[in-house]
Design brief:
heterodimer; A: 189 residues; mainly beta; lipopolysaccharide transport protein A fold; 13-stranded antiparallel sheet; elongated; B: 211 residues; 14-stranded antiparallel sheet; 1 helix; 61% strand
Chain lengths: 189, 211
């Protein structure tokens, strides 16, 4: 197993963490709501509270896209609290960046804390591996990504399963907490 | 003083004669001349102040250099001042070169360029506006540009409900707020609550910058 996917994964996390939807300072972002009938209520923006909310779950094929440079976040229900730099997608969301894809039932970004959280059926797919978990917490300050709850890491050479799995960027270190079991293919070409 | 019967008769005849003369004088000399063109009898006023009231409350006030009334239609030209009132207080100041007031329909048509200004820096520009007195609605069937509390709004169609304090925007709606640019198909903006409800597809671009 190479560690290339780890680097890619952490890099992607850093980028998506920095994105904070389209609220990032001095940078260009874009939010699109597509596939909705022209007269259908899509959402609301309250200028006083700075809360933007959109829900297109009632419309087949409709979606909310948030793009920032090469990062794209897609879902059907979202809330963006612009004053707090907080964004949440509920009811399913997918984040993509090149060959990196994160899917979860809920994806939250806490801009003031520089933290991202994905909860429920978390799946992270990279070129080299796929990680399954119930929750992912990424802290931009510590560069630490924590997967918890029925964690399963599938890669070309094997599978690792456990309850908690942590990755650190600086040390490029992987930590497995609690009971973990792995299955490795030792055959070499 | 006693008058003879003859003198009384002369006086009576004189009085009748004066009455007849007055009658014909008023009838033929003071009667308006026929209009030069085939339009209903009209009245033209110069330097006029017109005030529209409804339910005893002032709805609007207009100072115009020229007012031409043709039946139900009042045409105002060279308007100096037009104010729309809400709850008896000035609500909107309107600048427009020409207006037509359909009295029965309570419909005021403003021919552009029209500029409407209100509180808190509210400004609205349009080539043509209609003011419905019965509903208190200001309607622009064509392109409109608005400024409101840091928002710059353009749309292909707009109606402003002054009773509800709501702006309904349709077709190619764009709202710019700082570096945020909204592109919408349809939107309703609540002026008091500062809430924007949007309909259909939406694009929000950040970092587009304002001019």
């Amino acid at each position: 197993m190479t560690k290339k996917w780890i680097v890619l994964f952490v890099l992607a996390l850093v980028i998506m963490g920095a994105s904070g939807a389209c609220q990032a300072q001095g940078q260009r972002g874009r939010l699109e709501i597509m596939g909705v009938p022209a007269d259908a209520a899509t959402g609301r923006y309250n200028r006083e509270s700075g809360v933007f909310a959109a829900d297109v779950r009632d419309f087949a094929g409709a979606a909310i896209h948030v793009t920032f440079e090469e990062v794209r976040l897609v879902g059907q229900k979202m809330e963006w609290r612009t004053e707090d730099d907080y964004l949440i997608f509920t009811g399913g969301a997918t984040l993509t960046k090149e060959d990196f894809t994160l899917t979860a039932e809920t994806v939250e970004y806490f801009g003031s804390e520089k933290r991202l959280q994905a909860v429920g059926s978390v799946v992270v797919v990279t070129e080299d591996a796929t990680v399954y978990a119930q929750q992912l917490d990424y802290d931009e300050e510590t560069d630490r990504a924590v997967f918890t709850g029925q964690v399963k890491v599938e890669f070309e050479d094997g599978v690792l399963e456990g309850e908690k799995f942590v990755m650190f960027l600086e040390t490029r270190e992987l930590q497995f907490f609690g009971a973990f079991q792995g299955l490795f293919n030792t055959e070499r070409e | 003083m006693s008058l003879t019967a003859k003198a009384k008769g002369i006086l009576a005849a004189g009085a009748v004669l004066v009455g007849v003369i007055l009658f014909f004088t008023l009838r033929f000399l003071l009667q308006s001349s026929p209009p030069a063109v085939s339009v209903p009898p009209s009245v033209q006023l110069v330097e006029s102040r017109l005030v529209g009231r409804r339910g005893g409350q002032r709805q609007w006030e207009i100072i115009s250099r020229s007012v031409l009334q043709e039946g139900n239609l009042v045409t105002l030209s060279d308007l100096e001042k037009m104010v729309v009132f809400q709850d008896g207080e000035p609500y909107l100041n309107i600048s427009t070169p020409r207006a037509q007031w359909e009295r029965r329909a309570e419909l005021l048509k403003l021919h552009g360029p029209v500029v409407v200004e209100g509180e808190d820096g509210f400004r609205l520009e349009s080539d043509y506006l209609e003011w419905e007195g019965r509903t208190g609605r200001l309607f622009s069937p064509g392109p409109v540009r608005m400024l409101w509390q840091g928002l710059e709004i353009t749309a292909e169609e707009m109606s402003l409900d002054t009773e509800q304090a709501q702006v309904h925007l349709r077709r190619s709606v764009e709202i710019r707020e700082g570096t945020l640019l909204w592109k919408l198909e349809e939107a309703v903006y609540d002026l008091d609550g500062e809430v924007l409800d949007f309909y259909g597809n939406v694009v929000v671009e950040e970092g587009a910058g304002s001019d």
